[in-house]
Amino acid sequence: MEGEGEGEGEGGGAVAVGAVVGEQYCSEEERELTVRKTSLFFPGDGFAAYDPQTGEMVFRVDTYGRGPALADQLVLMDTPGASILTFRRKWPSLHQRWEGFLGERSEGQEPLFTVRRSSIFGGDRGDVAVEVHGVGGTYRIEGSFAQRCCRVLHEGRGGGGERGGVEVVVAEIKRKVDACAHVVLGRDVFRLCLRPRFDAAFAMGLVLVLDQICRDDEEDDISPADRDDIQGADSHADGDAHHS
């Protein structure tokens, strides 16, 4: 793959890591983004990613409401609002499968990569598998996104080109600590730590899907009565918005 770099795998071997979305999102040095959950209308439904050194926004995700149709498609944008990646939930799927498309998805376009749970059983620490089509890259996400403590591992290939064996950590999601107060911040603000040559746009896209999978798990834990109350509150909010 053009523009690949190498990292040290957990098994001691070298693993090639390169661009998935584009070379412009890869850095030769380690990089960190501060990610904040935000939204224009519904708190917690969107994202903004910043460079902590400059304070400049790098990526954003805007949401304009709730509901099944809106929840089944996500768009990762750059600062001006151009689409970088579009994500679509694949139905039916017991593995909570999502497909990622380059740019603004068009009819008949093939997905760039697929993200899914490794097991149909959810849970806070269930592994997530990522397959990049075409180049054949495979990734595994382990840990707890809900607790903002997980990492992305790239699966390398053996000498004969076969998969398996060697993995290298290419990104980590960690809790954010206030540098002045030395206090761990809430889960709405966290760090996305990237190894050299790992695609930042691809990493941010994985954050969006992990957030949706985590949200699905939380909704599975809500009782039917509580779910009716939440849906009723959303309906009243929509009605008030129409009357205003």
From TrEMBL:
Record-linked Gene3D superfamilies: LURP1-related
Protein name: Protein LURP-one-related 5-like
UniProt-annotated stretches for the region Disordered: 220-244
A Pfam family assignment: LOR
InterPro entries per the UniProt record, alphabetical: LOR, LOR_sf, Tubby-like_C
Record's compositionally biased regions (Basic and acidic residues): 224-244
Stated family: Belongs to the LOR family.
